[in-house]
Structure formats: C-alpha cells, structure tokens
Amino acid sequence: MILDEIIEKTKEDLERRKVEIPLDLLGRSLSSNPYAPRDVKKYLTSTKDEPVRIIAEVKKASPSKGIIKEDFDPLAIAQEYSANGANAISVLTEPHYFKGDLEYLTQIRRYVPTPLLRKDFIVDKYQIVEALVYGADFILLIAKALSTKELKELYEYALYVGLEVLVEIHDKEDLSKAMKCGANIVGINHRNLDTFEMDMQLCDKLIPMIPNGKIIVAESGVSNTETIKRLSSIGADAFLIGEHFMRVPSIKDELETFKNAIK
Ligand SMILES: O=C(O)c1ccccc1NCC(=O)[C@H](O)[C@H](O)COP(=O)(O)O
C-alpha cells in the first residue's frame, strides 16, 4: 500500500532529522523567525464577492504520475500563482515520491505574500515545528494516515503553535475522525491514496454529512470550470489543484478562468 510505504519512509527520514537537529534546537530558531503564520480561514472561505477560492499546488512529481514537470522552478511557479489570484499555495515538501523539499517553503515565503500550506505526510510534532520554522501558514493532516487520538493531538498542537490545519478525508470514517478533532477546514480528496482511483462524485456523498460552518476544500483531479461550478453549487469553498496547473501552457489564463467560473 503506497500510503503506508510513504509514511514508513517519512518516519525513517524523521528519525534522522531529529538526531541532526533536536527539537529544542529547531524550536530555538523560532525566536528569530520573521514569519508569523497568517489566519488562512479568511483566505479560504467562499464569499459572494469571491466565491471560488483556489489552493494552487507546486508539484514536481507524484506516486501516481511520476515526474509531472521536468523544468521545475518552485519559486517562479509560486510567484505566478500569487500574481494571478491564488488564495493559498500548497508546497509539497515530501522528497522521495513527490520530489519536494522543505527549503521550497522558505524560498517561496521570502518572496511571495500568499499563505502557504506545508503538504506532506505529517505524523509527528517535530514536522509541525519544521512547518513553522520553514514558513508555512497551515499544514495538512491526513485522517487515513492517523488514529483519531494521533489526529487530535497533532491538530491541537498545530493550533497551539499558531498553524491552521487542513484535515483531509476520503470516506465516512475519516470524516468522523475529522469531526472528533474539531477540524474547521476539511479537505475531501477525490483520490484514493492507496489505489490512486479517482471518485469525482465523492463531494456529493460527503458534503451533506459535514456540519455547517466548516470550510470545505475539494482536492485532486480538478481540471475544468464545470467541476468547479458543480462542486461550488453543493458547498465547496476552495479547490486544491496541482497537476492540472503544472501541465497547462498558461497558469495565468487557467487561474483567471477558474477564479471567474461563477459570476
Ligand atoms: O498525487 C498523487 O499521486 C498522490 C499519491 C499518494 C498520496 C498523495 C498523492 N497526492 C497528494 C494530493 O493530495 C494532491 O497532490 C493534491 O490534492 C492535488 O491533486 P492534483 O490536482 O490531482 O494534482
């Protein structure tokens, strides 16, 4: 199972990083951290004036597609997203399967004003402190990868250090975990992270089960305005889009089209 494999590798790497830079040392660098996390909820909540919110992803590769973008310049991509109306930017930091890097967060945070998501497989408080130190505003927690207790502990720790959390779900059990931890931002991932199968009808099943007042993010496989219009009409606030933006000839044109899907 690919998700288990990624988590296993993540834990191995983590043990090494914890020896290289122990948590207290990592935490100490926060006293000189120039980047306070922004409150991302206001950036991701759909409003009458700006109904479609976009989290645009900086994504070089993935387990399902291999290398997606050969000539990959994370800063240039993030600058283009920011200049053309992305409400947040998702930065993949997992190195083995997505060819990401934690340093991308810092590079982008230095020059780009848009809020940043650390998109990784977070299983430990150490990674949350890293997210803060490297310049993220919010993190991803994948319900499928964590027990209810782990999810709640990591969620509360993230909020405690000032980071918001996107809690990702794929089925009813995940949703139940997300609600138990009190998630405010719920991401519905159309992609099954073990089989890579896409279920573009998943929001239709899960959104009606989510209590009012939550910010809902539709994740993966979004590549046209019809999907954005349809999912917005049933309650999606925001859309997390990676591969599609990596492959289009003009990010500017595509972002503009998606942002104006509802008028
Ligand atoms: O993208 C994958 O192949 C993948 C495989 C296993 C675990 C996670 C995976 N992707 C992470 C994501 O959730 C997506 O990068 C994100 O939702 C954007 O999806 P897309 O627009 O389809 O690139």
UniProtKB/TrEMBL annotation:
Gene3D superfamilies per record: Aldolase class I (3.20.20.70)
Indole-3-glycerol phosphate synthase domain segment(s): 3-256
InterPro entries: Aldolase_TIM, Indole-3-glycerol_P_synth, Indole-3-glycerol_P_synth_dom, Indole-3-GlycerolPSynthase_CS, RibuloseP-bd_barrel
Enzyme Commission code(s) on record: 4.1.1.48
Pathway(s) the chain acts in: Amino-acid biosynthesis; L-tryptophan biosynthesis; L-tryptophan from chorismate: step 4/5
The entry's keywords: Amino-acid biosynthesis, Aromatic amino acid biosynthesis, Decarboxylase, Lyase, Tryptophan biosynthesis
Domain of life: Bacteria
PROSITE patterns registered for this protein in UniProt: IGPS (PS00614)
UniProt KW Endoplasmic reticulum keyword: no
CDD domains in UniProt: IGPS
UniProt catalytic activity: 1-(2-carboxyphenylamino)-1-deoxy-D-ribulose 5-phosphate + H(+) = (1S,2R)-1-C-(indol-3-yl)glycerol 3-phosphate + CO2 + H2O
UniProt family annotation: Belongs to the TrpC family.
Protein name: Indole-3-glycerol phosphate synthase
Gene: trpC
